[in-house]
Known about the structure:
Strand content: 25-35%
Number of strands: 31
Distance between the termini: 23 Å
Number of domains: 3
Bound molecules: ligand 9G3
Number of helices: 14
Amino acid sequence: MKFSELFCPTLREVPSEAETISHQLLLRAGYIRKAGAGIYSYLPLAHRVLRKIEAIVREEMDRSGGQEVLMPIIQPRELWEQTGRWDVYGEEMFRLIDRHQRYFALGPTHEEIITSLVDGDVHSYRDLPLLLYQIQNKYRDEIRPRFGLMRGREFIMKDLYSFDMDEEGLDVSYRKMYAAYNRIFQRLKLHYRVVEADSGAIGGNESHEFMVLADTGEDEIVFCEAGDFAANVDKAACVFSDDGPHEDRQALQKIHTPEMRTIRDLVEFTGQPEQRQVKTLMYYADGQLVAAILRGDRDLNEIKFKNLLGCQELHMADDASVRAAVGAGFGSLGPVGLDVKVYADLEIAGMRNFTCGANEDDYHYTNVNPERDFVPEEYVDIRNAVAGDPCPSCGKPLLTARGIEVGHIFKLGVKYSQAMNATVLDQHGQAVPMVMGCYGIGISRTMAAAIEQNHDDNGIVWPLPIAPFQVIIVPVNAKKEDQMETALSLYVEMQERGLEVLLDDRDERAGVKFKDADLIGIPVRITVGPKALQDNQVEVKKRWENEVFNVAIAQVTDTVVEIIRQR
Ligand code: 9G3
């Protein structure tokens, strides 16, 4: 490809709305352009990267026995009503109406479609196991689309669905996918961790996420560097053993705390550290007001709380409705005498003589003791795990990191096949619901995640397997006949060796060409300058290193082939 013909509109300036480096670089380097909030066009360079990522994913899906299909994006409402999910997903689901006033979903995922498809034509255990996948656009009306391709409203996903006779069969399929995902992310040269994950509303009981480690990742994970424990904080269990010893219980005291609202205010006012304070958070769980109480220095994990309550909908109560229900506002709440169900984090059981709100503005209690002064509904694990917590499996202190979820695999069980009556006849002629798994990879998100992990001040540093081109040849001065001739002959020779080469034949200053080569992130740069003609040499520069070195023109193609083979 010649740069003078390539549609690659690079920008000098960083677009203001781009907050993360991958979003900035994808825009600046001419890879994507925004069509609307969370909606992007992929320009030629991005398209080449996406095709390479998809090719690696396809190879590993096919190697694992997957068969590629392509399912509809327009999905009839009836299918989603069969599984009861038409009403579960509210505004996040794009919905449309056809000319006959019939409703459809724009596919956010494909469990309903694939289960209906398989149910129609699979009738016997002899037809299983069956692994079907697609690589297709998905649509989710994110409330706050941001970070470019990382959280779009239209994005490319590979989703595979497995169908087996029983749990054992599902286990085999799940392990196959688990291994295939590891091969994929290793081949993509990404630094990632597999973590135990929350299955959320999708159902089923076991799931793992593949997290590309990056400080801009939206997810937080905890992991043990000694063993192999790793979990999304939404899943990570916090262990607590009430091994005492405990100080004596002091007499409960009600104190006047004018204008004291935050834990920090109370620490200063009472001299009690935040570990001896208790915060009270009020939530509506499926419309019912409940309280969660945690040690002052802890944070509630809403996913753990929601899963524990088993509710469909959980959101924080606002100050007005709390005031109406309790007679006091945020910052003055506490479990003593509170007539809503109180769920206490496990650590509360081991606390003595703590401080909390008195459910009266400007008053708090000190020397509060569980079981004496209040009895919670239940002691539950609802706090966020933090660095330093003991590893649940070996006890060593956990570490935390932020990650970008690029893959998520689930054991679904019979949730969808039962709801849609998708059964097969087993060996005894009995109709049994198929046991399913589903396995997603965010293709477009993976491209962005690769940049988050592979960039420097000059631009993108593509991992070689997904670079849009492997080599860029830069004649220093396009006006010099001899330089262009040498560049062109190398361009032809390298392509004949099967290399993917971009020839920067633009009539631009050398500095601009070098900057663009670094910005778009091509792994190997060949510079054809005046030296070429004097000593028959060209300059070679690897994008991931700083130094450049000279190579005889007659050797440079072999040199580049070797560089790429080793990478
Ligand atoms: C919806 C909407 C958003 C959704 C879903 C449904 C997430 C939904 C979970 C999954 C699970 C797996 C197969 C590929 C891998 C992920 N967001 N999920 O089901 F209607 Cl609006 O998609 N599906």
